Protein backbone atom coordinates (compact mmCIF):
# COMPACT_ATOMS: atom_id res chain seq x y z
CA UNK A 1 0.00 0.00 0.00
CA UNK A 2 2.75 2.34 1.06
CA UNK A 3 4.73 1.51 -2.07
CA UNK A 4 1.70 2.32 -4.19
CA UNK A 5 1.33 5.72 -2.53
CA UNK A 6 5.02 6.42 -2.94
CA UNK A 7 4.92 5.44 -6.59
CA UNK A 8 1.83 7.62 -7.09
CA UNK A 9 3.58 10.57 -5.52
CA UNK A 10 6.77 9.99 -7.47
CA UNK A 11 4.93 10.12 -10.78
CA UNK A 12 2.63 13.04 -10.08
CA UNK A 13 3.27 15.73 -12.70
CA UNK A 14 2.61 18.37 -10.02
CA UNK A 15 4.72 19.75 -7.23
CA UNK A 16 2.47 20.66 -4.29
CA UNK A 17 3.35 23.74 -2.25
CA UNK A 18 1.59 24.70 0.96
CA UNK A 19 0.40 28.29 1.20
CA UNK A 20 3.41 29.12 3.42
CA UNK A 21 5.92 27.52 1.07
CA UNK A 22 4.35 29.30 -1.90
CA UNK A 23 4.17 32.70 -0.27
CA UNK A 24 7.87 32.55 0.70
CA UNK A 25 8.72 32.36 -3.01
CA UNK A 26 7.74 35.97 -3.31
CA UNK A 27 10.61 37.03 -1.04
CA UNK A 28 13.10 37.36 -3.85
CA UNK A 29 10.72 39.40 -6.00
CA UNK A 30 11.56 43.06 -6.15
CA UNK A 31 8.26 44.35 -4.79
CA UNK A 32 6.85 46.31 -7.65
CA UNK A 33 3.78 47.44 -5.81
CA UNK A 34 3.44 50.49 -3.67
CA UNK A 35 0.74 50.78 -1.01
CA UNK A 36 -1.22 52.88 -3.53
CA UNK A 37 -0.98 50.08 -6.10
CA UNK A 38 -2.22 47.59 -3.57
CA UNK A 39 -5.11 49.85 -2.70
CA UNK A 40 -5.98 50.11 -6.38
CA UNK A 41 -5.92 46.33 -6.70
CA UNK A 42 -8.19 46.09 -3.74
CA UNK A 43 -10.53 48.37 -5.66
CA UNK A 44 -10.94 45.65 -8.32
CA UNK A 45 -12.81 43.60 -5.81
CA UNK A 46 -13.11 44.90 -2.27
CA UNK A 47 -13.54 41.36 -0.99
CA UNK A 48 -10.02 40.33 -2.00
CA UNK A 49 -7.69 40.80 0.94
CA UNK A 50 -4.35 42.51 0.45
CA UNK A 51 -2.75 39.65 2.35
CA UNK A 52 -4.05 37.33 -0.37
CA UNK A 53 -2.58 39.54 -3.10
CA UNK A 54 0.80 39.62 -1.39
CA UNK A 55 1.02 35.99 -0.32
CA UNK A 56 -0.53 34.26 -3.32
CA UNK A 57 -0.78 36.48 -6.38
CA UNK A 58 2.59 38.26 -6.13
CA UNK A 59 4.54 34.97 -6.18
CA UNK A 60 2.33 33.91 -9.10
CA UNK A 61 3.15 37.10 -11.00
CA UNK A 62 6.85 36.46 -10.37
CA UNK A 63 6.60 32.94 -11.76
CA UNK A 64 4.66 34.15 -14.79
CA UNK A 65 7.16 36.94 -15.39
CA UNK A 66 9.99 34.37 -15.49
CA UNK A 67 8.03 32.15 -17.88
CA UNK A 68 7.09 35.04 -20.19
CA UNK A 69 10.73 36.22 -20.28
CA UNK A 70 11.95 32.70 -21.09
CA UNK A 71 9.39 32.37 -23.91
CA UNK A 72 10.30 35.80 -25.32
CA UNK A 73 13.96 34.65 -25.42
CA UNK A 74 12.95 31.42 -27.12
CA UNK A 75 11.07 33.29 -29.86
CA UNK A 76 14.08 35.50 -30.42
CA UNK A 77 16.33 32.44 -30.65
CA UNK A 78 14.05 30.85 -33.27
CA UNK A 79 13.93 34.06 -35.30
CA UNK A 80 17.72 34.48 -35.08
CA UNK A 81 18.14 30.90 -36.29
CA UNK A 82 15.74 31.44 -39.18
CA UNK A 83 17.27 34.82 -39.99
CA UNK A 84 13.87 36.51 -39.69
CA UNK A 85 13.11 39.83 -38.15
CA UNK A 86 11.46 38.91 -34.83
CA UNK A 87 7.88 40.06 -34.44
CA UNK A 88 5.70 40.29 -31.44
CA UNK A 89 3.60 37.24 -30.57
CA UNK A 90 1.43 37.60 -27.48
CA UNK A 91 1.99 35.18 -24.59
CA UNK A 92 -1.37 33.54 -23.84
CA UNK A 93 -2.47 32.51 -20.35
CA UNK A 94 -5.67 30.45 -19.97
CA UNK A 95 -7.69 30.52 -16.74
CA UNK A 96 -10.21 27.72 -16.17
CA UNK A 97 -12.55 26.64 -13.36
CA UNK A 98 -16.19 26.47 -12.31
CA UNK A 99 -18.74 29.25 -12.55
CA UNK A 100 -18.30 31.40 -9.37
CA UNK A 101 -14.96 29.93 -8.29
CA UNK A 102 -13.33 33.33 -8.88
CA UNK A 103 -11.87 33.06 -12.39
CA UNK A 104 -12.61 36.62 -13.41
CA UNK A 105 -11.35 38.05 -10.12
CA UNK A 106 -8.15 35.99 -10.43
CA UNK A 107 -7.75 37.11 -14.05
CA UNK A 108 -8.13 40.78 -13.13
CA UNK A 109 -5.61 40.54 -10.27
CA UNK A 110 -3.09 38.77 -12.51
CA UNK A 111 -3.67 41.33 -15.27
CA UNK A 112 -3.00 44.21 -12.88
CA UNK A 113 0.12 42.59 -11.41
CA UNK A 114 1.64 41.48 -14.71
CA UNK A 115 1.20 44.85 -16.35
CA UNK A 116 3.60 46.32 -13.80
CA UNK A 117 6.56 44.32 -15.08
CA UNK A 118 8.71 46.26 -17.59
CA UNK A 119 9.03 43.48 -20.20
CA UNK A 120 5.27 43.01 -20.63
CA UNK A 121 3.33 46.17 -19.80
CA UNK A 122 0.37 45.55 -22.12
CA UNK A 123 -1.84 42.79 -20.72
CA UNK A 124 -5.29 42.22 -22.25
CA UNK A 125 -8.13 40.14 -20.86
CA UNK A 126 -10.81 38.33 -22.85
CA UNK A 127 -13.55 36.07 -21.48
CA UNK A 128 -14.90 33.13 -23.42
CA UNK A 129 -18.54 34.06 -22.77
CA UNK A 130 -18.31 36.29 -25.88
CA UNK A 131 -18.01 33.05 -27.87
CA UNK A 132 -21.30 31.63 -26.56
CA UNK A 133 -23.89 31.36 -29.32
CA UNK A 134 -26.45 34.18 -29.07
CA UNK A 135 -29.66 33.22 -27.21
CA UNK A 136 -31.63 33.01 -30.48
CA UNK A 137 -29.20 30.37 -31.76
CA UNK A 138 -29.14 28.55 -28.39
CA UNK A 139 -32.95 28.45 -28.48
CA UNK A 140 -32.90 27.11 -32.04
CA UNK A 141 -30.55 24.33 -30.91
CA UNK A 142 -32.51 23.64 -27.69
CA UNK A 143 -29.52 24.70 -25.56
CA UNK A 144 -30.87 27.54 -23.36
CA UNK A 145 -30.55 25.32 -20.28
CA UNK A 146 -27.03 24.32 -21.35
CA UNK A 147 -25.34 27.73 -21.27
CA UNK A 148 -21.68 27.19 -20.42
CA UNK A 149 -21.69 23.54 -21.60
CA UNK A 150 -19.21 22.81 -24.40
CA UNK A 151 -21.87 22.70 -27.10
CA UNK A 152 -23.11 26.22 -26.22
CA UNK A 153 -19.89 27.81 -27.55
CA UNK A 154 -18.81 28.58 -31.08
CA UNK A 155 -15.50 26.81 -30.49
CA UNK A 156 -14.34 27.17 -34.08
CA UNK A 157 -14.71 30.93 -33.85
CA UNK A 158 -12.75 30.94 -30.57
CA UNK A 159 -9.98 28.89 -32.16
CA UNK A 160 -9.88 31.23 -35.16
CA UNK A 161 -9.60 34.19 -32.77
CA UNK A 162 -6.62 32.60 -30.98
CA UNK A 163 -4.96 31.54 -34.24
CA UNK A 164 -5.21 35.14 -35.49
CA UNK A 165 -3.60 36.42 -32.30
CA UNK A 166 -0.78 33.87 -32.38
CA UNK A 167 -0.12 34.58 -36.04
CA UNK A 168 0.71 38.16 -35.06
CA UNK A 169 -2.30 39.92 -36.64
CA UNK A 170 -2.17 43.56 -35.55
CA UNK A 171 -5.89 43.80 -34.76
CA UNK A 172 -8.21 40.97 -33.75
CA UNK A 173 -11.82 41.35 -32.58
CA UNK A 174 -13.91 39.23 -30.20
CA UNK A 175 -17.67 39.36 -29.59
CA UNK A 176 -18.98 40.59 -26.24
CA UNK A 177 -21.42 38.94 -23.80
CA UNK A 178 -23.52 40.90 -21.33
CA UNK A 179 -24.36 39.26 -18.01
CA UNK A 180 -27.12 41.85 -17.58
CA UNK A 181 -28.79 41.09 -20.90
CA UNK A 182 -27.81 37.41 -20.58
CA UNK A 183 -26.97 37.47 -24.27
CA UNK A 184 -24.34 38.43 -26.83
CA UNK A 185 -24.42 42.18 -27.44
CA UNK A 186 -25.09 42.67 -31.11
CA UNK A 187 -22.44 44.79 -32.86
CA UNK A 188 -20.21 45.18 -29.78
CA UNK A 189 -16.61 44.01 -30.04
CA UNK A 190 -13.53 43.86 -27.88
CA UNK A 191 -10.39 44.71 -29.86
CA UNK A 192 -7.08 42.99 -29.18
CA UNK A 193 -4.08 44.81 -30.63
CA UNK A 194 -0.90 42.84 -30.08
CA UNK A 195 -0.66 42.85 -26.31
CA UNK A 196 2.45 41.42 -24.66
CA UNK A 197 0.18 39.02 -22.77
CA UNK A 198 -3.39 37.91 -23.39
CA UNK A 199 -5.36 36.30 -20.56
CA UNK A 200 -8.24 34.15 -21.76
CA UNK A 201 -10.65 33.24 -18.98
CA UNK A 202 -13.54 30.78 -19.16
CA UNK A 203 -15.13 27.57 -17.99
CA UNK A 204 -14.13 25.49 -20.94
CA UNK A 205 -10.68 26.61 -21.92
CA UNK A 206 -8.93 23.34 -21.06
CA UNK A 207 -11.44 21.10 -22.78
CA UNK A 208 -10.59 18.59 -25.47
CA UNK A 209 -14.10 17.84 -26.61
CA UNK A 210 -15.51 16.42 -29.78
CA UNK A 211 -16.90 18.91 -32.27
CA UNK A 212 -20.70 19.21 -32.52
CA UNK A 213 -20.53 17.33 -35.81
CA UNK A 214 -19.17 14.33 -33.88
CA UNK A 215 -15.87 14.42 -35.79
CA UNK A 216 -12.84 14.54 -33.51
CA UNK A 217 -11.33 18.00 -33.16
CA UNK A 218 -7.74 18.15 -34.30
CA UNK A 219 -6.98 21.42 -32.54
CA UNK A 220 -7.96 22.64 -29.09
CA UNK A 221 -8.23 26.04 -27.44
CA UNK A 222 -5.46 25.05 -25.03
CA UNK A 223 -3.06 24.39 -27.93
CA UNK A 224 -2.66 28.19 -28.06
CA UNK A 225 -1.81 28.58 -24.38
CA UNK A 226 1.69 29.22 -23.16
CA UNK A 227 0.49 28.70 -19.58
CA UNK A 228 -2.77 27.64 -17.95
CA UNK A 229 -4.24 28.01 -14.48
CA UNK A 230 -7.15 26.04 -12.98
CA UNK A 231 -8.92 27.75 -10.07
CA UNK A 232 -10.18 24.99 -7.80
CA UNK A 233 -12.28 24.69 -4.62
CA UNK A 234 -14.58 22.11 -3.01
CA UNK A 235 -17.99 22.09 -4.70
CA UNK A 236 -19.97 23.01 -1.58
CA UNK A 237 -17.90 26.18 -1.15
CA UNK A 238 -18.38 27.15 -4.80
CA UNK A 239 -22.14 26.61 -4.47
CA UNK A 240 -22.10 29.04 -1.52
CA UNK A 241 -20.15 31.63 -3.53
CA UNK A 242 -22.61 31.27 -6.41
CA UNK A 243 -25.58 31.83 -4.08
CA UNK A 244 -23.87 34.79 -2.35
CA UNK A 245 -23.14 36.41 -5.71
CA UNK A 246 -26.75 35.84 -6.81
CA UNK A 247 -28.01 37.56 -3.63
CA UNK A 248 -25.68 40.48 -4.27
CA UNK A 249 -26.79 40.77 -7.90
CA UNK A 250 -30.42 40.80 -6.74
CA UNK A 251 -29.63 44.08 -4.96
CA UNK A 252 -27.72 45.56 -7.90
CA UNK A 253 -27.58 44.26 -11.50
CA UNK A 254 -30.97 42.48 -11.45
CA UNK A 255 -32.62 45.87 -10.78
CA UNK A 256 -31.30 47.24 -14.07
CA UNK A 257 -34.28 47.64 -16.43
CA UNK A 258 -32.26 45.88 -19.15
CA UNK A 259 -31.61 42.87 -16.92
CA UNK A 260 -32.78 39.50 -18.17
CA UNK A 261 -33.21 38.61 -14.48
CA UNK A 262 -35.48 41.56 -13.55
CA UNK A 263 -38.03 39.03 -12.31
CA UNK A 264 -35.54 37.90 -9.66
CA UNK A 265 -35.03 41.39 -8.21
CA UNK A 266 -38.07 41.18 -5.95
CA UNK A 267 -37.58 37.67 -4.63
CA UNK A 268 -37.50 37.25 -0.85
CA UNK A 269 -34.23 36.02 0.65
CA UNK A 270 -35.56 32.51 0.89
CA UNK A 271 -36.89 32.47 -2.68
CA UNK A 272 -33.64 33.91 -3.98
CA UNK A 273 -31.60 31.19 -2.26
CA UNK A 274 -33.95 28.54 -3.66
CA UNK A 275 -33.73 29.95 -7.19
CA UNK A 276 -29.93 30.26 -7.11
CA UNK A 277 -29.63 26.72 -5.71
CA UNK A 278 -31.84 25.38 -8.50
CA UNK A 279 -29.82 27.12 -11.26
CA UNK A 280 -26.64 25.95 -9.59
CA UNK A 281 -27.76 22.31 -9.43
CA UNK A 282 -29.45 22.10 -12.82
CA UNK A 283 -26.82 23.90 -14.87
CA UNK A 284 -23.58 24.91 -13.21
CA UNK A 285 -22.89 21.96 -10.87
CA UNK A 286 -23.67 19.54 -13.66
CA UNK A 287 -21.30 21.33 -16.01
CA UNK A 288 -18.62 21.43 -13.31
CA UNK A 289 -18.82 17.69 -12.69
CA UNK A 290 -19.15 16.59 -16.30
CA UNK A 291 -17.00 19.02 -18.24
CA UNK A 292 -14.88 21.34 -16.11
CA UNK A 293 -13.42 19.38 -13.16
CA UNK A 294 -12.11 16.62 -15.48
CA UNK A 295 -9.85 19.20 -17.16
CA UNK A 296 -8.07 20.18 -13.94
CA UNK A 297 -5.07 17.90 -14.41
CA UNK A 298 -4.36 19.50 -17.81
CA UNK A 299 -3.47 22.85 -16.20
CA UNK A 300 0.08 24.03 -15.59
CA UNK A 301 -0.86 25.39 -12.19
CA UNK A 302 -3.79 24.74 -9.84
CA UNK A 303 -4.82 27.27 -7.21
CA UNK A 304 -6.62 25.25 -4.52
CA UNK A 305 -8.93 27.50 -2.50
CA UNK A 306 -10.64 26.97 0.83
CA UNK A 307 -13.19 29.06 2.74
CA UNK A 308 -13.32 32.79 2.00
CA UNK A 309 -11.46 32.21 -1.29
CA UNK A 310 -8.22 31.76 0.65
CA UNK A 311 -5.72 29.78 -1.41
CA UNK A 312 -4.52 26.81 0.66
CA UNK A 313 -2.20 25.03 -1.73
CA UNK A 314 -0.63 25.56 -5.13
CA UNK A 315 0.10 22.68 -7.49
CA UNK A 316 2.73 23.52 -10.08
CA UNK A 317 3.34 21.28 -13.07
CA UNK A 318 6.93 20.12 -13.01
CA UNK A 319 6.87 18.05 -16.20
N1 LIG B 1 -9.95 36.11 -4.04
C1 LIG B 1 -11.21 36.44 -3.68
N2 LIG B 1 -11.49 36.91 -2.44
C2 LIG B 1 -12.76 37.20 -2.07
N3 LIG B 1 -13.84 37.08 -2.86
C3 LIG B 1 -13.64 36.61 -4.11
C4 LIG B 1 -12.33 36.26 -4.60
N4 LIG B 1 -12.45 35.81 -5.86
C5 LIG B 1 -13.78 35.87 -6.17
N5 LIG B 1 -14.48 36.36 -5.13
C6 LIG B 1 -15.95 36.52 -5.09
O1 LIG B 1 -16.53 35.26 -5.50
C7 LIG B 1 -17.59 35.46 -6.43
C8 LIG B 1 -17.25 34.78 -7.75
O2 LIG B 1 -16.13 35.39 -8.31
P1 LIG B 1 -15.98 35.66 -9.88
O3 LIG B 1 -14.59 36.17 -10.09
O4 LIG B 1 -17.11 36.48 -10.36
O5 LIG B 1 -16.12 34.14 -10.42
P2 LIG B 1 -16.17 33.50 -11.88
O6 LIG B 1 -15.54 34.45 -12.84
O7 LIG B 1 -15.37 32.23 -11.72
O8 LIG B 1 -17.63 33.21 -12.14
C9 LIG B 1 -17.76 36.97 -6.57
O9 LIG B 1 -18.80 37.37 -5.70
C10 LIG B 1 -16.41 37.52 -6.12
O10 LIG B 1 -16.54 38.80 -5.52
C1 LIG C 1 -21.85 32.98 -19.03
C2 LIG C 1 -21.38 31.72 -18.33
C3 LIG C 1 -21.71 30.50 -19.20
C4 LIG C 1 -19.86 31.78 -18.09
O1 LIG C 1 -19.14 31.85 -19.30
P1 LIG C 1 -17.52 31.88 -19.49
O2 LIG C 1 -17.04 33.32 -19.57
O3 LIG C 1 -16.85 31.17 -18.36
O4 LIG C 1 -17.28 31.20 -20.81
C5 LIG C 1 -22.07 31.57 -16.94
O5 LIG C 1 -21.76 32.65 -16.13
C6 LIG C 1 -23.61 31.41 -17.03
O6 LIG C 1 -24.31 32.36 -17.24
N1 LIG C 1 -24.09 30.19 -16.86
C7 LIG C 1 -25.49 29.86 -17.07
C8 LIG C 1 -26.19 29.54 -15.80
C9 LIG C 1 -26.30 30.74 -14.85
O7 LIG C 1 -27.09 31.65 -15.12
O8 LIG C 1 -25.57 30.75 -13.86
Give the key terms.
319 residues; alpha/beta; Rossmann fold; seven-stranded mixed sheet; two-stranded antiparallel ribbon; disordered N terminus; binds adenosine-5'-diphosphate; binds the ligand CC(C)(COP(=O)(O)O)[C@@H](O)C(=O)NCCC(=O)O; nucleotide-binding
Structure description:
This protein is of the alpha/beta class and 319 residues long. It has one domain: Rossmann fold. It is 40% helix and 18% strand. The chain has a seven-stranded mixed sheet. The longest helix is centred in the N-terminal third of the chain and has 33 residues, at 50-82. The structure holds adenosine-5'-diphosphate and the ligand CC(C)(COP(=O)(O)O)[C@@H](O)C(=O)NCCC(=O)O. The ligand CC(C)(COP(=O)(O)O)[C@@H](O)C(=O)NCCC(=O)O binds next to helix 9.
How would you summarize the topology of this molecule?
Blueprint: H1 2-10, E1 14-18, H2 19-24, H3 35-44, H4 50-82, E2 91-97, H5 103-114, E3 123-127, H6 135-140, H7 155-166, E4 172-178, E5 183-192, E6 197-201, E7 227-232, H8 235-251, H9 269-292, E8 301-305, E9 311-317
Parallel strand pairs: 2-6, 2-7, 3-6, 7-8
Antiparallel strand pairs: 1-9, 4-5, 8-9
Helix pairs in contact: 4-5, 8-9
The chain binds adenosine-5'-diphosphate (ADP) and ligand PAZ.
Amino acid sequence: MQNQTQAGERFSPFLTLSRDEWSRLRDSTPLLLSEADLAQLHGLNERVSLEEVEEVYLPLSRLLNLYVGATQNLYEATHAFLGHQSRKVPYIIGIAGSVAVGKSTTARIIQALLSRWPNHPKVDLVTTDGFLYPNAELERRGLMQRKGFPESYDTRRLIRFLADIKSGKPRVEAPVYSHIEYDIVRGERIVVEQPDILILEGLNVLQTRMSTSGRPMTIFVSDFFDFSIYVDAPEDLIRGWYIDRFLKLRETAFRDPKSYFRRYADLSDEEAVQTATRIWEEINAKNLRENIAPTKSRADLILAKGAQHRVQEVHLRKI
